[in-house]
Amino acid sequence: MTGSHAARDIDTSKPHSARMYDYYLGGKDHFDVDKKAAEQVAVAYPGIFVCARENRAFMHRATRVLAREHGIRQWLDIGTGIPTEPNLHQVAQAVVPEARVVYADNDPLVLKYAETLMRSTREGRTTYIEADANEPDVLLNAPELAEVLDLTKPVALSLNALLHFITDSQDPYGLVGRLMDALPSGSALAISHCTPDFDPATWAKVTQIYTSGGTPVRFRPKAEVARFFDGLDLLEPGIVVGHRWRPDAAEGDVDENLSDATVSLWSGVGIKP
Prior knowledge:
13 helices; 273 residues
């Protein structure tokens, strides 16, 4: 699909989570409606900018760890969002140039930037699939996925800041289970998930802002995030607040001033036995 096709489908009548996230990261790919909603969130929860930044940093670290220490060479990134460099494939291919990455999202604005997501190394491959996380079988059976990923070999399933947009009625555990069932032993699951654990009142306000804007959310406590990893072997240090998952001083990840309440993001990586 072309960028012009995607642009015709973009709904600017209500805020969109991916465009709000772009605003939190200081990007330019959002509209006034997104900025206004994001600023409402920032009033209720000033830490949202730090949360977004730490979410990206966790993704980078988890990708490098899986590539360097666990032999992962394939990634399936669902809920890709608007590209922000370095993208996952750039992080992975900086470690292993032959890395293969499939991105999936159902936001037409992300589709507009699909070309950016497919600028791979010569040794590796990347592609973008327009797909809905709520339809795992459609995604898994997409011909584009089969062209890039070999599902007989380990794949890292990357679900960063996605699952809190899948409510309980949408069976989030069933969705993750279906995806992981399709992947072989040695595959990985990387999750980051916003949480109300450290400030329930604030996150109740954030929930109301998103829901009233047309985006239902379900921010989960640690025990509910841990359920996504049932049957997997958690990598150390387990499920921790984002900035505490293997901070890398060489990458500038260590910030002694960050509090768990400011970040409010559970993060973890598990390996399928």
